[in-house]
Amino acid sequence: MTAEVASRPGAPAPARADDMGLDLGLLLRGRRVVCVGGGAVTARRVRRFLEVGALVEVISPVLGDELSTLAAAGQLVWTPRRYVGPADLAGAWLVHTATGVTTVDATVAADAEAQRTFCIDATAGGRGSAQVLSSRRVDTPAGPIRVAVHGGGDPRRAAGLVASMAADLAAGLHDVRSRRRRAGVGWVALVGGGPGDPGLLTLAGWQALRAADVVVVDRLAPREVLADLPPEVRIIDVGKSPGNHLMRQEDITETLVREAGAGWGVVRLKGGDPYVLGRGGEERQRLDAEGIPVRVIPGVTSAIAGPAAAGIPVTHRGLADGFTVISAHDELGSVPRRRDHTLVFLMGVSRLGSIVSTLLEGGHDPDTPAAIVERAHRQGQRTTVARLADLPAIAYGVGVENPAVIVVGDVVTVSPHWGASRP
Ligand SMILES: C[S@@+](CC[C@H](N)C(=O)[O-])C[C@H]1O[C@@H](n2cnc3c(N)ncnc32)[C@H](O)[C@@H]1O
Predict the structure, then answer these.
(1) CATH number, span 303-421
(2) How close is the Cα of 392 to the center of ligand 1, in Å?
(3) Cα distance between residue 206 and residue 212, in whole Å
């Protein structure tokens, strides 16, 4: 049995209100689009047509403000008169009619139909030969995408859904990885993961993770977040701990170059901030030199969040108006010697004794309040406070371990731990 053809060619069945049609991405660059009507609806659509590079002509005796501005700027051609007939539509790939007069719009739609050009009829409630989906472009670290929704005859419902889907994408709720390996080079994001609590990873950092094919992760990064990534995401653990370097820095940088060079999107997930004693600068320079697109996403540094976890502000009115962050591996000769200038040492546990003796020899007041905050914003956080001169003995007595920040200065007195330690 053969199916009966419902209509003659050239006389399609009338569109139904619930007809959702076929979703197409029309490539209108350099193609003529004729818009009849010069009001706000036309202006909204013309904006989109111009965005995608269409050659727009607007036929209308008058134009609203936005269309006037576009016409004056030469971005569209304005024919300042009423619609006269099919000749106005000659050569158009797409027609849009929104005159506000139902009979005129119906005439334009019928003329377009006769010449087999798709027509969006704004007054026909989506029942022209073409419909516009509510849509929005969302830029993700893995490249732009467009979310489009057909509201089933309810454009406001569609617009609401598009807005909430775009917000979800921006919040990193969806896996936006490209499923195809890029033909050329990929990208790298150097992401500061914060001190360890996943809640202190930035939204931008999380978005980058949701777009990554490969994650190269440090020991002190917030590793719990990795459990929420799809299983296909490759995790490369380069976790360095003091005295146990799983991978040398040069090899880590080579890994980034190799993976991104092979077309993958790579997140380098670090503890704290990539640019605070995190070797992010070196990694970036190398990637730049290789022509690999690289983005640095700042993180919450343990140099500030570590003391803060113990209730110590690195500056405090009347107690300190500046602070210095120091790698404990560096020379301490030139650090400020005042109690009202906060010193924060990273990577200092194994050198605590020598740090303190160097400070005291350099003239630091032995009574300067000092603290060590271990595992800040992590399970097992612990704070030890003491006068500077007593800190090594007390800290080693309680078995202080990495990771920890050492804070020296009057700001330590703001911490509840300081008050609790005083008789
Ligand atoms: C190689 S540095 C990296 C610093 C990192 N880029 C930052 O901005 O926090 C590692 C040192 O940061 C400090 N650190 C990192 N996370 C910490 C945490 N959760 N608690 C205390 N100190 C931490 C420790 O001093 C550790 O030895």
Answers:
(1) 3.30.950.10
(2) 19
(3) 10
- Please list the alpha-helical segments (H only) found in 194-271: 203-210, 249-261
Domain 32-124 indexed as CATH 1.10.10.10: no
DSSP state of 272: B
pLDDT in tens, 6-56: 444 555 666 665 678 888 889 999 999 999 999 999 999 999 999 999 999
Q: Is 237 a catalytic residue?
A: no
Report pLDDT for 244.
61
Q: Catalytic one among 105, 121, 218, 273?
A: 218
pLDDT digits (tens, 9 = 90+) for 294-304: 999 999 999 99
Pocket of ligand 1 (CB under 6 A): 195-196, 220, 270-273, 276-278, 301-303, 306, 346-347, 373, 375-378, 402-405
Q: Describe the chain by its helix, strand, coil percentages, rounded to 5.
A: 35, 20, 45
Q: How far is the CA of 94 from the centre of ligand 1 (A)?
A: 59
pLDDT band, residue 2 (cuts 50/70/90): very low
